[in-house]
Amino acid sequence: MLPGVIYALLAGFLGAIASSSAKLSLGADYLKGVCETGMKIWAGERTIITREFETTPCEWLHIPLRLLCGGLLFTCNAVMWTFFAKALRHSSSSARVTVTTTASNFISSAFLGHLIFGETHATLWWVGISLTLSGLLILHGSTPRDPQQEAKKHK
């Protein structure tokens, strides 16, 4: 049962990375801003201008970064579904796997959103995730039913 939980947690985390990668690849302004901030820090507050085109390197550098994030999106999704399938194979309950993956995804998304994008969540969001985690604990605390014992009960 433990490998199933680990695979489910990893699947949720990879799903959160994939969604963050999608947000980065589709939002050009954010990557351009990060690039410009990084260039200022790296160049020591000097403006770097390419004389030939009179543009900063960030005008074109965000495009390969967006493509890289797009590739990360598809890679993380593929690995996430692989781990989810392995979690289903190693677990006695598909409900446990689904709830564990969902909870892992929500929590990972919250931390990645705060870390990467500076997002904050309302109290209601945290109440909802707490209810989800409570349901997860109840599901993990229950014992799976043995089909042979159930058949004997009904005879």
Helix content: over 70%
Q: How many domains comprise the coordinates?
A: 1
Assembly annotation: single chain
Radius of gyration: 22 Å
Q: Output the number of helix runs.
A: 6
The average pLDDT value, as a whole number, equals 82
Number of strands: 0
Helix-and-strand structural type: mainly alpha
Distance between the termini: 30 Å
Order of helices and strands: HHHHHH
Shape: elongated
- Unreliable segments (pLDDT under 50, ≥5 consecutive)? none
| Largest β-sheet summary | none
Q: Tell me the fraction of residues in β-strands, as a range.
A: under 5%
InterPro entries: EmrE-like, TMEM42
Signal peptide: 1-22
Protein name: Transmembrane protein 42a
Transmembrane segments: 63-85, 97-117, 123-143
Kindly describe this structure.
- This protein is an all-alpha fold and 155 residues long.
- The chain has one domain (2-144).
- The protein is built from 6 helices and no strands.
- It has helices at 2-26, 28-43, 58-90, 94-117, 123-141, 147-153.
- Helix 1 runs parallel beside helix 4.
- The radius of gyration is 22 Å and the shape is elongated.
- The two termini are 30 Å apart.
